[in-house]
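Hi R.,

As promised on Friday, here is the backbone we talked about, encoded as structure tokens. Could you run it through your design pipeline when you get a chance and send me back a sequence?
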């Protein structure tokens, strides 16, 4: 069936499904960034690739695709910042001496007082 603007329902449906998957992936990343400690509970997204043979994006889906792209860009920037912060924490933590990592040191107690 062809719509008034010349697109077929299957073509638009394929693009809607592709955008749904992209949107789900970015929603998962946003949730991960919101509550980083729940990361084990979130499913790992599969890498996205455009479905074959669906043609160009329908014009009426362009605003949605642009919105998803903006969210992906923002999420990527937040992920990069989170990684930098994590690396700094790991570097700082590696400098902290623990009892297990420290060699035995003599302890002196002045009992003269």
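Update: got your reply. Pasting your designed sequence below so it's all in one thread:
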């Amino acid at each position: 069936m062809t719509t008034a603007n010349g697109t077929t329902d299957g073509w638009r449906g394929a693009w809607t499904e592709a955008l749904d998957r992209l949107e789900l992936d970015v929603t998962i990343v946003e949730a991960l960034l919101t509550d980083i400690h729940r990361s084990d509970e979130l499913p790992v997204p599969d890498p996205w690739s455009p479905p074959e043979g669906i043609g160009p994006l329908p014009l009426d889906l362009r605003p949605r695709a642009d919105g998803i792209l903006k969210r992906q860009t923002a999420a990527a920037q937040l992920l990069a910042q989170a990684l930098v912060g994590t690396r700094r924490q790991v570097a700082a933590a590696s400098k902290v001496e623990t009892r297990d990592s420290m060699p035995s040191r003599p302890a002196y107690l002045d009992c003269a007082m």
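One thing I noticed while checking it: Residues 19 and 65 are 7 Å apart (CA to CA).

Thanks again,
M.
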